[in-house]
Design goal:
Blueprint (H helix, E strand, L loop, with lengths): L3 E4 L2 E4 L3 H17 L6 E6 L1 H9 L1 H9 L2 E4 L2 H9 L10 H15 L2 E6 L4 H12 L4 E6 L9 H14 L3 E5 L4 H8 L8 E4 L3 H5 L8 H5 L3 H8 L1 H11 L3 H11 L1
Parallel strand pairs: 3-4, 3-8, 5-6, 5-7, 7-8
Antiparallel strand pairs: 1-2
Length: about 260
């Protein structure tokens, strides 16, 4: 088992990207030989997700019950090192999605795309199937925008996913909403692997540009996103994120 690191009460896996992909492949192949009672949940946790979990115990409980909780964010990786429990690799949703599709192409796995804005899933489906012919997208479903889905809408989503016989469910509903939805339906989802992938659909589909590579390494991808989408991102990066450092200091010195 790979170790988990406590960041403000949320336990995050310390794992290399390739080891994670190997683990995903094993989950799917094992399911094919013997279907399980519930899906394996993967949460990708940037700073704002950890802060949301700290404020909402039920969200933190979801993260801590998930099989995989991944470090998405330079501040999260920095905090782990500062606390004396370093995380070996930062794995963002933007990096993980193309790697997952490549894995599905190599292993003949199938994928279901749930969420994002209307038209995004179909455009991503077309791109995936043109570039990765062995990766079949067996379904796309875009629920209407709701802060909380109705029981009827939840049932539609479940039926669409389960009838697709997909190996990998990718959910793009923003975090932690996507993680809550997967957790609440974990025992009803007939799919081996369910991943809350965030806004990676739009980027891989070519609808939203990603920051230059030099900004990734410098930890400045957040600045690029803020400049691209100031109305949507200002609260996350300018109001919520600055709270993270003093909380990490408190965790460090409260020991």
């Amino acid at each position: 088992m790979h170790p988990k690191v406590n960041i403000l009460g949320t336990h995050i896996n310390s794992i290399h990207n390739q080891d994670l992909l190997d683990a995903f492949a094993n989950v799917i192949l094992d399911w094919r030989s013997r279907p399980k009672q519930y899906t394996t949940q993967v949460c990708i946790t940037p700073t704002n997700s950890i802060l949301a979990a700290r404020k909402q115990p039920h969200v933190q409980a979801i993260y801590n019950a998930a099989e995989w909780v991944i470090c998405d964010g330079v501040p999260v990786k920095w905090a782990a090192g500062f606390l004396g429990t370093p995380i070996v690799e930062r794995i963002t949703g933007l990096d993980l999605l193309p790697d997952l599709i490549q894995l599905a192409h190599e292993k003949n796995f199938t994928v279901f795309l749930l969420g994002a804005s209307p038209g995004v899933g179909e455009q991503l489906k077309n791109k995936i199937e043109s570039l990765y012919p062995n990766c079949k997208v067996t379904g796309v479903y875009v629920p209407p925008f709701m802060s909380v889905f109705t029981q009827e809408e939840n049932q539609k989503m479940l039926e669409a996913v389960n009838q697709s016989n997909a190996d990998i469910l990718l959910v793009s509903l923003t975090a932690p909403k996507q993680d809550i939805w997967i957790a609440e339906h974990k025992h009803l989802l007939k799919v081996p692997l369910s991943i809350g992938i965030g806004g990676a659909f739009e980027v891989m589909a070519g609808l939203v540009p990603r920051a230059p590579k030099w900004m990734h390494g410098a930890g400045l991808e957040w600045l690029y996103r803020l400049i691209q989408e100031p109305k949507r991102m200002y609260r996350r990066y300018l109001i919520e994120a600055p709270l993270f450092i003093p909380l990490i200091l408190r965790q460090k010195f409260s020991k």
